[in-house]
Each structure stands twice: as C-alpha cells, then as structure tokens.
C-alpha cells in the first residue's frame, strides 16, 4: 500500500494492495501500521457502501464538529470521479477542490481529513463505493454545499441527484463550521 500526497494538505491518494490470480482478486483497504507510520487515523467507527448508476452525483457532504470525521473512500466495482473541497476557514486552500478517479481497475482510495466536503460522479452503472468513517452518522451535524458551486467542472451534462443534494446552499453562502 502506497500513500501519495495531493495538491491539498491532508488529502491523500492511496494505492491499495491488489493481488490477482485464477480465482479473481484480493484487495487490502486498511492497514494500521502503514496508516500509523504516515500519521493517518485508522480507527474507524462506521462503514457503509452505496450503489450508483452512471451519471449519478452524490454530494457535496460533510459532518460538522464535534461529529466531524476522517473518511476513507474507494470503489469495489465500477468507477467514479471523486471530489473534495477544503472548507477549513483558516486553510490557505479554502474553497479549493481536488479530484481523482477511483476504480476497480486502478484500485486507488482517497483519505479525506476532517474539514472537507466530499462527493463523486459515477462513471459506470452499478458503481459500488465503500466508506470508512472515524465517527458515526449524526443527522443534526450533517451538512453540504451545492455540487456545482465551486471551482470544478463536472464532466456530465445532466447529472442524477437527490432532492437534498440539489437544495444545498452554494459554497459562497456557507458559514463554514470548520
Ligand atoms: C450517510 C448515511 C445515510 N443514511 C440514510 C439516510 C438516507 O435515508 C439514506 C441515503 O442517505 P444519503 O442520501 O445521505 O446517502 P449518500 O448521498 O450516498 O451520502 C453519502 O454520500 C456522500 C458523497 C458522502 O460523502 C457521505 O459519506 C454520505 O453522506 O441513508 C444512514 O442511515 N446513515 C448514514 O450514515
């Protein structure tokens, strides 16, 4: 497992260990020693997955302090364009985004520190995205920003979104909780 820096502080792209043979594939997603050696949190309290059809956008979500969390995200099957936005008030990269393709071919994962909004575009039907979070869901602390209200052009004309995701405030109107 290799951990790579990105253009945004505290956002890392992991190259997961993948082993293929005549039976199929084995993929390791969390390894405490490697995470510890790189100063990453590795004690996750909740994990879940979603299944999305092509052109679905989910996001841009966050959970406010004191329920804010680190998130580890990767694809089990399919592919997505994963996007994060820095919402940390005192950060030099406030409002800036980073994107990376995560797929069942490149076996990459993204490690998202506290203080970022997260979302993705499904690039294939039935893309399964798995999450590990260092705090569990807290409905009152859940928040988001409008998916097309920051410095990123989504490569899709008519995305499929939930009503909730379509009703978030734009980034410029957010009073960030971070
Ligand atoms: C996140 C969550 C959701 N739910 C229920 C609430 C709704 O009834 C249903 C779907 O929830 P939502 O529309 O928020 O699901 P996503 O849009 O896939 O949300 C996720 O997608 C973005 C991109 C993320 O980064 C978050 O981790 C996560 O918020 O599951 C729960 O019961 N527990 C949970 O932890």
TrEMBL record:
Q: Which residues form the signal peptide?
A: none
Q: What is its EC number?
A: 5.1.3.13
SUPFAM superfamilies in the record, alphabetically? RmlC-like cupins
Q: Keyword set for this entry?
A: Isomerase
Q: Which Gene3D superfamilies match?
A: Jelly Rolls (2.60.120.10)
Single GO molecular function:
dTDP-4-dehydrorhamnose 3,5-epimerase activity
Q: What catalytic activity is recorded?
A: dTDP-4-dehydro-6-deoxy-alpha-D-glucose = dTDP-4-dehydro-beta-L-rhamnose
Q: Under which pathway is this protein filed?
A: Carbohydrate biosynthesis; dTDP-L-rhamnose biosynthesis
The record, for Pfam families, names: dTDP_sugar_isom (PF00908)
- Specify the enzyme's EC class, one word: isomerase
Q: Which family does it belong to?
A: Belongs to the dTDP-4-dehydrorhamnose 3,5-epimerase family.
Q: Its biological function?
A: Catalyzes the epimerization of the C3' and C5'positions of dTDP-6-deoxy-D-xylo-4-hexulose, forming dTDP-6-deoxy-L-lyxo-4-hexulose.
The subunit structure is: Homodimer.
Name listed for the protein in its UniProt record: dTDP-4-dehydrorhamnose 3,5-epimerase
Native species:
Mucilaginibacter pocheonensis
């Amino acid at each position: 497992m290799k951990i790579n820096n990105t253009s945004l502080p505290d956002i890392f792209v992991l190259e997961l260990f993948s082993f293929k043979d005549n039976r199929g594939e084995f993929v390791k997603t969390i390894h405490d020693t490697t995470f510890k050696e790189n100063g990453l949190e590795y004690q996750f309290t909740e994990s879940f997955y979603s299944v999305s059809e092509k052109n679905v956008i989910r996001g841009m979500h966050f959970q406010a302090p004191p329920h804010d969390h680190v998130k580890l995200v990767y694809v089990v099957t399919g592919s997505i364009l994963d996007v994060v936005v820095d919402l940390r008030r005192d950060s030099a990269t406030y409002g800036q985004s980073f994107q990376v393709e995560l797929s069942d071919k490149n076996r990459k994962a993204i490690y998202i520190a506290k203080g970022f909004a997260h979302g993705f575009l499904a690039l294939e039907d039935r893309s399964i995205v798995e999450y590990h979070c260092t705090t569990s869901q807290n409905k009152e602390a859940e928040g988001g920003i409008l998916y097309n209200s920051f410095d990123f052009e989504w490569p899709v004309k008519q995305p499929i979104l939930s009503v909730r995701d379509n009703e978030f405030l734009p980034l410029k109107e957010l009073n960030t909780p971070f």
